[in-house]
Amino acid sequence: KQWYQRRVAITAGHKRKEIVTGTVEPSESECIVLGEDGIKDETIDNDAPEENVKGIPNFWLTIFKNTDILCEMMQEHDQAILAHLVDIRVSFPETGMGFVLEFEFSENAFFEDKVLTKTYEMKSEPDELDPVAFDGPEIIGSTGCTINWKKGMNVTQKLVKKKQKLKGKSETRIVQKVIKEDSFFNFFNPPQIPDEDDSIDEELEALLTSDFEIGQYIRERIIPKAVWYFTNEVNELESELGDGSDDDYSDTSDYDDELDKNENVVANETVTNVQNEDCKQQ
User: Fold this and answer.
1) Residues 120, 124: Cα–Cα separation, whole Å
2) Least crowded by CB within 10 Å, which of 89, 103, 120, 147?
3) Which of 124, 125, 119 is nearest to 218 (CA)?
4) 3-state DSSP of 54-96
5) Are 136 and 244 in contact (CB under 8 A)?
6) CB 180, CB 260: distance < 8 Å
7) Half-sphere exposure of 233 toward its Cβ, with a 13 Å CA cutoff?
8) Separation between Cα atoms, residue 111 and residue 113, nearest integer Å
9) Residue 225 exposed, middle or buried by CB count within 10 Å (0-12, 13-18, 19+)
10) What is the pLDDT of residues 11-61, one digit of tens each?
């Protein structure tokens, strides 16, 4: 009963973050469901035992798992972090066009930040060379934010160690490299558009397109219809409303692959000399 009431209130658009986190419980008036005939739906079992659960645990993590485009970006090591995600919202700058996606997290062991942001810049001006092709506002760039990871908790990087024998010597050394690791949180470090448009190759263009589509998808679908993605009823809902499907959006495999290819090494090598074979493992 509790969960059903919370779901109804969220669907109605009331205090989603507060209900998800358990800060408030929806009132009875917020939980009324009207059937097609406009009469109160009494199908809920009012005699069901109350569950002593605060809010709706793993609300956003479940949405990620239920949404193909987000699930493809999420890795297993991301899930413990996304369990702390309490809200996703969109804001708009006071000047210019565009939007900002805001991901709010509860206090966690992974990073210091309370809110991570991704800003998308848009333009609504026809191309002077081809004004007929103008098809409304379009995204022209995106900017992520710096994540202040706690020590040893950065899931976007992986330390790789290799043994290397010194030429002409019996000594060995350990070469360490920090390489980019697949993670949803690479979303906050998007590819940058070169100053010269002519320098954008096909791979980078595909990467930018994917990034823009993901941002639009979160803004236009995930945020306003979050509860339906949580219950995995979104396909049925959109079918009834004639609102299209997820097929309109491409998958993100190219996005992850190209990020990995273009930015594999993200830190300088560090070398540790080891004087004998007994000290190889460090």
Assistant:
1) 13
2) 89
3) 119
4) CCCCCHHHHHHHHCHHHHCCCCHHHHHHHCCEEEEEEECCCCC
5) no
6) yes
7) 10
8) 6
9) middle
10) 444 578 888 888 887 776 666 554 555 445 555 454 455 567 788 899 999
